[in-house]
């Protein structure tokens, strides 16, 4: 049983999820009218709270940190607050375990560069064919530093199974790099089972949490992972990335560091200046989620520093439940349209996926589907989903690829039905 599988309880409570009311907090959704955002995997919209935080930073505190005047001190305070918020969001043991930066890919490369310098006799790295290329190519480049690679292959159901990881682990395994949730197929990996196996072999585990971020609660202590990376733009924040690492692991990690930077996390992981305004936005995105969780749990007042983590986790649990309903609606709509769905499509396994669907319509090029949807005011995506090796596994061309509909908590069943009408029309017209 996948420990991250959502429960049926979540589906029932999802019926009362206030998606329509939440949409009012997203100016882009209000301005967009009937336009449907089903390309959230390429960037989710941001709530007003996030816009306000970014604006406030740029208007009031757009200066370098580390000085002695009020505005620069405000930047220091904002970064400290954001670090604590994001630490609470992923249930880190301490804020210093969070590093801010440009994006997820550059953090994966930072860790891979460091691991490459420490390979020794443990030179085997396990990667998967389900992952975004960002969590594959960044490791494969270590071949010239003596790394050997083993592939944890997804099964024909489009999911990674921990039983298939076990035989790949040896006393030479240095790290397992795998996705928490596929950005293409939406399948959720049982990362706790994978972490237990990796640790039993004396290896570490690196989780790509980028796609899972907006869909469910992240708990690095429950996952028992060593690293986890996320991207703000998927979690209702601007473009930025953050890396969580177990403190002792980050302490040991060799990184590039300027002479004036202390050799300790998080400074040793954060080269140069990052986009402070976007970090302020990420802090506000956690605040938005925490307010939602607090409202849904019926607790009075606004989240504070002590409740933030539990409030945000409550929101993510409710989102996970509501999104299962969206997954069921989308799967049914795609079945009715005669689409070929790649990945988990059985209703009974809805808890093992998020509402990210890759599909094709028989005899119709993916590009035609996304163009027809665009004409009808619906954003979809076509292509290889930045996972060309996965396209090979699925037996589809890397050039044309698949169609992806990626939903988040502000999407609704009514929007799914509108897409269904467009797809049905397209099939009828051939
Ligand atoms: C699962 C996954 N990993 C990594 C990335 C790369 O993230 P970034 O653009 O922040 O480098 C993405 C981007 O879509 C993704 O979906």
Folded structure, characterized:
This protein is an alpha/beta fold and 430 residues long. It folds into 2 domains: 8-45 and 321-429, Aspartate Aminotransferase, domain 1; 51-285, 3-Layer(aba) Sandwich (Aspartate Aminotransferase, domain 2), CATH 3.40.640. The chain is built from 16 helices and 13 strands. The protein has helices spanning 8-14, 19-23, 27-31, 48-60, 70-89, 104-116, 137-140, 162-165, 191-200, 220-223, 247-252, 276-296, 308-336, 366-375, 388-394, 413-429, and strands at 36-37, 98-101, 124-128, 148-152, 173-179, 204-208, 227-231, 241-245, 340-342, 356-360, 378-379, 381-383, 402-406. The strands form 3 sheets. It has a 7-stranded mixed sheet, sandwiched between helices. A 4-stranded antiparallel sheet has the order 9-10-13-12, covered by helices on one side. A two-stranded parallel sheet has the order 1-11. Helix 5 (70-89) crosses helix 12, helix 12 packs across helix 13 (308-336) and helix 13 (308-336) packs parallel to helix 16. The longest helix is centred in the C-terminal third of the chain and has 29 residues, at 308-336. The two termini are 41 Å apart. Residues 7-15 have low confidence and may be disordered. The structure holds pyridoxal-5'-phosphate. Residues 103-105, 132, 134-135, 179, 183, 208, 210-211, 231, 241 line the site of pyridoxal-5'-phosphate.
